[in-house]
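Dear colleagues,

As part of the handover before I leave the project, I'm documenting each prediction I ran so the next person doesn't have to rerun anything. This entry is a single chain, and its sequence is reproduced below.
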Amino acid sequence: MAEDLDRIRERIRLLRGRTEAAGCTSAEAEQAALAAMALMAKYQVPEDLADRPPIRNMIYKVGKARLRRPWTDLYHEIFHWTACRGYIRDFDGSLQIEGFEPDVEIAVYILDVTGRILDDERKACLASAAYKRRKLPRTRRTHLADWLAGVVMGLRHKIREAARDLGDGKERARRLDLVDQHSTTQAVTYKPRGRPPTTSSAAFQEGAQRGLKHDIRVGVGTADTPKLIGGA
């Protein structure tokens, strides 16, 4: 039902966009306006919703291992600054993302880039001398977890820097309000799982410094086509 309403609203939005300023004749513009008004009356679409684009709802696979800290701390940062809502789906190891375009597209792009950064940083940690000096599995797991938590902290800072391209805080709040008003959006409470990082550890500090050196505005690696957040 919500998807049907989205299609109707999209039809109304397209009809209302057929104006003389858009290149239509006066007769075409008048006919389109009357058709839009008829649809708005029939489906009880208020004026303030008539020009709103349909919400995008997509599933992004991350894997169940990445539904814990420090990954989830990064997801919350991404969704906040891109004015999207993200829901954790434990049963299939994915994230459900709701928002308007280009917000969802930007969120997915940042998820792609930061995901590859974290994959590379995990390999770097496993190859480091500090990791290899630790002989016990428990101390190695702790070292890796603190390293990645530090990288996430650095990446969160870089995301906040890049968010200047996404509009001011009031605009983000307005878009989030629009998402919340959508009929398919549901309130979800989530308690972070996993051990909080030891921020005073050398591994965390090293990871944070490495995270700050990455530029999320472009892809990771020389094979990627540069792409600015908020632009092509």
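The first strand starts at residue 56 and ends at 61. The first helix runs from residue 2 to 16.

All the best with the project,
I.
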